[in-house]
Amino acid sequence: MSKLTVRDIDLKDKQVLVRADFNVPQDEQLNITDDARIRASLPTIRYILDSGARRVILMSHLGRPKGKIMEEYRLNSVARRLEQLLGQPVKKLKDCVGQKVKQEIDNAKEKIILLENLRFHPEEEKNDPKFASMIASLGEVFVNDAFGTAHRAHASTEGVTHFLQSVAGFLLDKEIRYLGEALKDPQRPFVVILGGGKVSDKINVIKNLLPQCDCLLIGGGMAYTFLLARGVKIGNSKLEKEKLDLAKEILNMALKTGKEIILPVDHVVVDKIEAGIAGIVVEGDIPDGKIAVDIGPRTIELFEGKLKGAKTVVWNGPLGIFEIDAFDNGTRRIAQFLSGLTAVTIIGGGDTAAAVAKFGLGDKMTHISTGGGASLEFLEGKVLPGIAALADKQ
Ligand code: ADP
Ligand code: MG
User: Fold this and answer.
1) Span 269-280, average pLDDT
2) Ligand 1 center–CA 143 separation, angstroms
3) Which of 97, 98, 302, 331 could bond 134 through an S-S bridge, CB–CB 3.0 to 4.6 Å?
4) Which of 351, 356, 368 gets mutated to test ligand 1 (max ligand atoms within 8 A of its CB)?
5) 282-289 — which CB contacts under 8 Å span 24+ positions?
6) Same domain (yes/no): 224, 126
7) Does 84 share its domain with 210?
């Protein structure tokens, strides 16, 4: 079901409450080390201001203060960066609810207000209805643009929607369109690439996407549990023994339903996972003691062959230990190949997004999901409470 967005409602003269994702990394001096999330929120904020809104009240969490005030998690640096980026004054408040906050908002000359870290109050993560109503009382309409927390029913993502008309901002809308709607009725052939550390993290993604896709390519650490399930020797590569039966079950399910699951046929292996060590390529069985850290050149070719004609590609999970340069080749080559396709290319998962960014290919993909956990739950086919709670399009 599609959701109403900021474009669908009248914002003129309204006081608009916006849940943004300003959960940015900071160094010890509290300098923001990556402001991508703040930049990503600007189109929605600018649109609301340009639509004649009286005020924009911004709110977010930062870090994990666990219901207590922690100086290092105040949103002061975020306010300053927002001011720079928007070229307009931002009034930063010292709390996010209460009479004083209300008064300060009413008396503010500034059009943009930033509330203090929502998670200084334990009621936020408990989705306390009273707290949610106090947040809601600060605005006349609610815009959720924080995809990274959409999988959590918190007061500022779900609770607040019980009190105000609630719509999606541009960031959230894009996630809904690509991870939600596009995958319900994908252009075919639809190829899924899964990798990353563990089978156990991705079981529900496999179960949800295998029936929908035409071909599933598996690489990364999780490939080795599957390879062992097929009787291939895996040396000391990543293995989740307790998931072997499940891997067999999934391979059987694919056979029965005529779905192709492609596993690596060659590997870059090492004796020890360490930067500065060059791996060697082995085909088929992996010798005793060796650890697979990347897919090999024949596997890259095999994967490229399956991706060549695809119309939709979803990729979650790096295909090797890409954090170490010597082992990032498979992930890099597949990212490069995707960037040359005319297909809809959708990247989900925090590490996969980081890998694509490392290779400088971020703007070559159709959509890179901004939420790690949230994008996984979306790919698992789960209903995300922060999205479900928004008003449906008629
Ligand atoms: P995402 O965050 O995109 O969902 P994951 O968290 O599932 O991805 O997986 C990322 C991790 O998987 C990376 O830290 C990477 O080093 C690891 N990984 C990839 N290939 C292997 C491998 N062959 N052996 C062990 N770990 C691997
Ligand atoms: Mg990860």
Assistant:
1) 94
2) 34
3) 97
4) 351
5) 284/232, 285/232, 285/233, 286/232, 286/233, 286/234, 286/235, 286/237, 287/233, 287/235, 288/233, 288/235, 288/236, 289/235, 289/236
6) no
7) no
CB atoms within 10 A of CB 104: 15
The DSSP bridge partners found for residue 64 are none
Whether residue 290 is predicted with pLDDT greater than 90 in this model: the reply is: yes
Same domain for 204 and 151: no
Is 387 contained in some domain? no
pLDDT at 106: 97
Nearest to 241 by CA among 228, 223, 254: 228
- Asked if residue 236 has its Cβ within 6 Å of ligand 1, the reply is no
Beta bridge partners of 56: 16, 112
64 assigned to active site: no
pTM for the full predicted model: 0.91
Tokens of 21: 């994702």
State whether the beta carbon of 197 lies less than 6 angstroms from ligand 1.
yes
Segment 103-127, tens digit of pLDDT: 999 999 999 999 999 999 999 999 9
Which atom of ligand 1 approaches the CA of 355 most closely? 3
Which is the catalytic residue, given 364, 373, 381, 382?
373
Instruction: Please tell me which residue, 190 or 394, carries the higher pLDDT value.
Output: 190
Please provide the average confidence, as pLDDT, over all residues in the chain: 96
**Residues 244 and 344 grouped into a single domain:** yes
The yes-or-no answer on residue 81 being catalytic is no
Write down the pLDDT at residue 1.
65
Containing domain of residue 48, as a range? 6-171
Q: pLDDT tens digits, residue range 25-76?
A: 999 999 999 998 999 999 999 999 999 999 999 999 999 999 999 999 999 9
Domain boundary among 171, 190, 212: 171
User: Residue 110 is part of a domain; what is its CATH number?
Assistant: 3.40.50.1260
d(CA 4, CA 390) in angstroms, rounded, equals: 7
**C-alpha–C-alpha distance, residues 3 and 150, integer Å:** 14
Residue where a domain stops, chosen among 145, 171, 197: 171
Per-residue model confidence as pLDDT tens digits over 295-347: 999 999 999 999 999 999 999 999 999 999 999 999 999 999 999 999 999 99
Q: Are residues 118 and 255 in the same domain?
A: no
Looking from the CA of residue 292, the nearest atom of ligand 1 is 23
Residue 189 lies inside a defined structural domain of this protein: yes
Domain count, the chain: 2
Instruction: Report the alpha-carbon distance of residue 7 to residue 13 in Å, rounded.
Output: 15
Q: What is the pLDDT of residues 366-378, one digit of tens each?
A: 999 988 889 999 9
309 is catalytic: no
Active-site residue flag, 198: yes
Do 165 and 184 share a domain, yes or no? Answer: no
Distance 222 CA to ligand 1 centre (A): 8
- Residue 321 CA to ligand 1 centre (angstroms): 6
